[in-house]
Design goal:
The chain has 2 domains: 2-199 and 386-400, 3-Layer(aba) Sandwich (Rossmann fold), CATH 3.40.50; 212-384, Glycogen Phosphorylase B (Rossmann fold, 3-Layer(aba) Sandwich), CATH 3.40.50. It is an alpha/beta fold. The protein contains 15 helices and 14 strands. Helices cover 42% and strands 17% of the residues. The longest helix is centred in the first third of the chain and has 19 residues, at 81-99. The strands form 2 sheets. The protein has an 8-stranded mixed β-sheet, sandwiched between helices. A 6-stranded parallel β-sheet has the order 11-10-9-12-13-14, with helices on both faces. The chain starts with a strand and ends with a helix. The radius of gyration is 21 Å and the shape is globular. Strand 5 (106-110), helix 3 (115-127) and strand 6 form a beta-alpha-beta unit.
Length: 401
């Protein structure tokens, strides 16, 4: 089988779409599948091309047996709706033309953003090959949720295009059951929707002793560390977290934020203005370094803004934290909350509710028996969401198509 996969995020980027795509493709290659990735130069989240890469018209490389084609696109910072759309559409345009000349049996395009699916749709129509819409976010609805765009004629048009693409695809592979329910409620045929959730790479993430050298380096010995590792984006409600931290009087509790994104500068400024001493900000780290940093935390923080739309989202960090035996403090309602509560792999607080957040922080720190039970629940959750098994599930769907 030859798979053509179109995505605008791929390693060395370390966000959730890049990680899922890479780990799935790597597994498929081990099953004898030929995988070609069409992507852009790595630039997430700053909108600056990574060192060692150049925004050329066309270049190729091999990564773990995966053929990667990088094409030119208009790269910009994650600010300004029109600039971002130009970024997305320029990549989709280039991916379409390059994808036309690749040998493949099936095409996959992943969202967000959903302009990648336009390229897949066009290639599929011309080459008469099946194409898959991998649904990672209900876009453009999500951009309205984070305030990047208000109700408008443009948004209505984009949503009509979105629905047309679902109907045109040979299969929609959603990452949550809630996404599937959303599509069915909007008239998409249930039989064409499959669910393959996110999960954890059990080869990379597994329980281990705390990295004492890192604790010493960060001067966090003997601290109860609540860590947020990931994108500091508009959706993640990190300003709420920083504003809440000032109310914590227990000097042994410390927050560790690792990563970057559109809100990084804002929350660092908030922390300085509040003269917080119980929070540390670090630059982004590579995927291979993540287990080392996860090892030193006691709790993994996974918040989002309070929104009906985010009830359909499952933050991928809950799987990686669980694989490391780290309970999650989750500020998300809906399916993600159901998973954490089903496996007893952490505690959930009402999104953007300061009192509930602070109460759950203290519970996880002070109730030793509760914490121990959560650690045990993490092991069960991680086993249920083993990325290797999920990649094989998706491959079987592709083979049927």
């Amino acid at each position: 089988m030859k798979i053509l996969f179109i995505t605008d995020n791929f390693p060395p980027e370390v966000n959730a779409p890049a990680t899922r795509t890479f780990e799935h493709c790597k597994e498929w290659v081990e099953h004898g599948v030929e995988v070609t990735i069409v992507t852009c130069e790595p630039n997430f989240p700053h909108g600056h091309v990574y060192e060692g890469y150049t925004n050329k018209l066309y270049q190729t490389e091999m990564i773990e047996g995966i053929r990667v084609i990088r094409v030119w696109s208009y790269i910009t910072t994650n600010s300004g709706f029109l600039k971002r759309v130009l970024d997305y559409m320029s990549f989709a345009f280039m991916a379409f033309w390059v994808g036309l000349f690749q040998k493949h049996d099936v095409i996959i395009a992943t969202s967000p953003q959903f302009f990648t699916t336009w390229a897949a749709w066009g290639i599929a129509k011309i080459k008469r090959k099946p194409w898959i819409f991998e649904l990672r976010d209900i876009w453009p609805e999500s951009i309205k949720t984070v305030g990047a765009m208000k109700e408008s004629r443009v948004l209505d048009i984009l949503e009509k295009i979105e629905l047309a693409l679902y109907r045109s695809s040979d299969k929609v592979i959603a990452v949550t059951d809630a996404f599937k329910a959303n599509l069915i409620s909007r008239g998409i045929d249930e039989s064409k929707i499959e669910v393959v959730t996110n999960g954890a790479n059990m080869d990379l993430f597994s329980p281990r002793e705390k990295d004492k050298a890192l604790l010493e380096e960060l001067h966090l010995e003997n601290k109860f560390i609540i860590g947020y590792l990931g994108t500091h984006g508009l959706a993640h409600s990190l300003d709420f977290i920083v504003n809440s931290i000032s109310k914590i009087t227990d000097k042994n509790i410390h927050f560790l934020f690792v990563g970057d994104g559109a809100m990084k500068e804002t929350i660092v400024k908030l922390a300085k203005e509040s003269s917080l001493t119980n929070i540390t900000f670090l630059d982004p780290i590579s995927k291979d370094e993540m287990p080392r940093y996860l090892s030193i935390i006691d709790i993994s923080l996974a918040p989002l803004k309070r929104s009906e739309n985010f009830k359909t989202v499952i933050p991928s960090k809950i799987f990686e934290a669980s694989a490391m035996g780290k309970p999650t403090l989750l500020g998300v309602e809906g399916q993600a909350q159901e998973i954490i509560e089903k496996y007893h792999a952490g505690l959930c607080f009402i999104p953007e509710n300061k009192d509930d957040f602070l109460e759950k922080v203290l519970l996880l720190k002070n109730d030793i028996e509760l914490y121990k039970n959560c650690v045990e629940g993490c092991s069960v959750l991680a086993t249920a969401y083993n990325r290797k098994k999920l990649a094989e599930k998706m491959l079987q769907i592709l083979k049927k198509i």
